[in-house]
Structures are given as C-alpha cells and as structure tokens.
Amino acid sequence: MKRLTLFFLAFVLMFMAGCQPKTTRYQAEFLGLFDTVTTVIGYAESKEEFTALAQKIQEQLTRYHRLFDIYNDYAGINNLKTINDHAGDVPVQVDQELIALLLFAREQYFVTGGAFNIALGPVLKVWHDYRTSGILDPLAAEVPPRQLLEEAARHTALEGMIIDEAAATVYLSEAGMRLDVGAVAKGYAVERVAQDLEAAGVSSLLLSVGGNIRAIGGKPDRKGIKPWKIGIKNPDPESPDPQLCNVLIVGESVVSSGSYERYYTVDGTRYHHIIDPKTLMPAAYFSNVTVICRDSGLADALSTALFNLPLAVGKGLVEGMDGVEALWVIESGEVIYSAGFGGYRAD
Ligand code: ADP
Ligand code: MG
Fold first, then answer.
1. pLDDT tens track for 212-222
2. CATH architecture, range 81-172
3. Fewer CB within 10 A of the terminal residue: the chain, N end or C end?
C-alpha cells in the first residue's frame, strides 16, 4: 500500500512537471538609447511572447531616454534640455517622472557628500566638448584651460535647482546652470522599468543598458531557479583575464564606472569622463568601481560617486549602507572588496 502511494505520488509529480510550460532563452538587443546598447535576456514559451515583452521594454526606455536627454528636443515634451535651455529664465513644467529622478539625484548628492552632483553640467560640458574635438582630431587634442573649468564651476551649486513638486516645475536659478544626469539616468530608467515588470508579474529577466545590469529574479533551470552569472570587466586590456571576477545575482543590480569607458588622449595621457568635483579633473583614484545592490538607480549614482572618493571614504560610505557591496580597482591593478562582496562571488 505504502509503495503504491509512493508510486502514485511520483506519477502525479511527473505529470505536473510535464505540464509546466517549457520555456526557451531569448535575447534582444537595441541601439539608440542612452548612447549605448540595450540587451534584454529572458525565458518565454514562444519567440512572439518574448519579442512583445522586449518591445514594451524598448518603448518604456525610449520614453525615459527622451525625458532625461540634454542634447535633443522632442515634439510635445519638455525634457531636461528644456529645463537647461530656460536656466535663469523661467520654471519649466515637466513630467512627474523627471521630477522623481531629480529628487532622487538630489538625495544622492547629500548621501555622497557631493561626489555625485547632477549640477556639475557646466564643467562636464567643457570636458565633453574638448573630448569630442580631441577624438575627432587627436593631434590637436587639448586639456581644457584651468580658467574655463573654474568659470564653469561657479554655476554648479545644486541649491540652484528649484523643484516645485505641486506645480510640477523645475527652475534653474542661474543662467549658467546645466543639469547632466549621465551618471544616473541609465540605472534609474532600468530600475523603473524593472519595477513595472515585476509589478506586472514578470519573474525572470535580465536587463542591461550599456552594462548597467538589473536582474529580475533568477533564471529558470530544469531543477528550479538559478542565479544569473555576471562577469565584471577587467579594466586592464593587457591582462590575460578579460574579467576581474564573476558574481551571482538574483534580483540585484550590478553597475560599473570605469576610466576605460569614455576618454580621449592628450600627449599620451588619457582623460576620462568621470569628473571629480573637488579638482574639476578626471578622478584619479581608480580604474574601475563596481556596485552591487537591489536598486539600479542607486548602484549607478553610487558607482560614479565612489569613483570620485578616496578609498577609505568610499569604503566607509558602502559599509554604512544596508545591502550595498562594492569593489574598487586601484591603479596598480589591485582589487579591494567591501566586507560582504564575497557573498556574491562565483569564483
Ligand atoms: P557610464 O555612463 O560610462 O556608465 P557613469 O555612470 O559613471 O558611467 O557616468 C558618467 C557620466 O556621468 C559622465 O559622462 C558625465 O555625464 C556624468 N558625470 C561625470 N562626473 C560626474 C560627477 N562627479 N557627478 C555627476 N555626474 C558626473
Ligand atoms: Mg553612474
């Protein structure tokens, strides 16, 4: 009798497993958003089902991309460029989603002691213009003159960003001000989209916007759910190991900031795109900083901020935050990990 019950139970379990929808891994890539490549990896019962989901994700990311853009206007919407264009002029009415990003960025400015500052726009524009010319014409590449950087730095006080939540307006109080959300927009947009997908019942997906990675759940496997394995890029192109290490995540974000991402060269010296607000020069502490935590907007803002902070200060910041881990690669190539980082390592 007992044996019969067991046999029956095994049969029911086998039948249930057979009824589980069989899913296949799919991947979609699209260009044109946030100046980088977006990748979506998911498991679905059919290609049509996955493509419909990937398209929805692309539409949502496009909406955020347009709102957070500082270079282009779009018919019918006021975006960050509109706010910048009206600096010192009038408050601009914008979508609540843009206000939410600016409030989040202001919070992170205080959390990071100003190492992450979206009002650094005027200084970032000087570097952006010199980098663009330097890449186009490498022989004529120059470092921005000190005086130009210091003049730009006079208009970088975040207090000048005046947000009226009730009226949904943003006003930049000085004509020279300019907001730049390049350090947080990708991660923030990915987080919003991921949370919407989770609320809609999506339980397994991997989103990457230019390497800003956000996992929804883990990945399905015949035996259940397995973590996603993410490689962290080695900033040293000459190293035999293309990756520093692999990490395993279930529902977390992994975001890196690196000096190798965007740079130009003047007289053999590289000048990258993450600017230390204290020196107005490319931060010189690390070649890579990677943050792991749930919220990918926080991971993005923090990875940029930590890049601009001395190791001891950054470590203190990370160790004081719940659920945040980080690694720092110093110029010698040595890698330093926060106390709980090992819990994510796959090797
Ligand atoms: P990436 O965009 O390459 O992934 P980051 O997230 O670190 O890397 O963002 C770098 C961008 O952030 C720069 O291109 C610039 O627009 C902006 N940025 C640079 N330095 C700062 C800073 N100190 N505070 C806020 N934003 C910054
Ligand atoms: Mg960032």
1. 999 999 999 88
2. Orthogonal Bundle (1.10)
3. N
